[in-house]
Amino acid sequence: MTVPTREPQSFTAGDTVKWTKSLPDYPASQGWTLTYYAIQQNHKFSAVATASGNDFAITIPATTSDDFVVGHYFWEAQVTKAGERYTIERGTFDVLTDIAAQNNWDGRSHARKTLDAIEAVIEG
């Protein structure tokens, strides 16, 4: 498996999530630490990268992502070293429903459910 070099745009709750990050101005080999922080309405988490030469390896274990609330998250990445801290990037990602863990799930959007209900009333 090839590990991506960009942050994920989406992943399924309960999956292992991995990526690497190269930061030439803040190499891991020179003592920089990279931490990702993510938040949404009902959940917040952080992930500390491990050094991989000059680069950083980020892993969110399946046991951790299994507890994530499904929805849209905002994240930022910060590097720190000896009292210095820099926010280097921000973005978003979506945590998707783990269908395998569901007993009863309706994947339609709210708009689709509403339209289907209106059509059912109109059609009698």
Describe this entry's structure for a reader.
The protein has helices at 62-65, 110-122, and strands at 10-12, 17-21, 33-40, 43-48, 50-52, 55-60, 71-81, 84-96. It is mainly beta and 124 residues long. It has a 5-stranded mixed β-sheet, with no helix packed on it. The protein has a 3-stranded antiparallel β-sheet with strand order 2-6-5. The radius of gyration is 19 Å and the shape is elongated. It starts with 9 loop residues before the first strand and ends with a helix. The model has no long low-confidence stretch (mean pLDDT 93).
Briefly summarize what is shown.
With 124 residues, the protein is mainly β. The chain has helices spanning 62-65, 110-122; strands at 10-12, 17-21, 33-40, 43-48, 50-52, 55-60, 71-81, 84-96. A hairpin with a 2-residue loop joins strand 5 (50-52) and strand 6 (55-60).
Order of helices and strands: EEEEEEHEEH
Q: How would you write the strand order of the largest sheet?
A: 1-8-7-3-4
Q: What value does the Rg take, in angstroms? A: 19 Å
Which residues sit in consecutive blocks of at least 5 with pLDDT less than 50?
Answer: none
Number of strands: 8
Average predicted confidence as pLDDT: 93
Biggest beta sheet attributes: 5 strands, mixed
Strand percent estimate: 35-45%
- Tally of individual helices: 2
Q: Which structural class do you get from the secondary structure elements?
A: mainly beta
Give the % helix: 10-25%
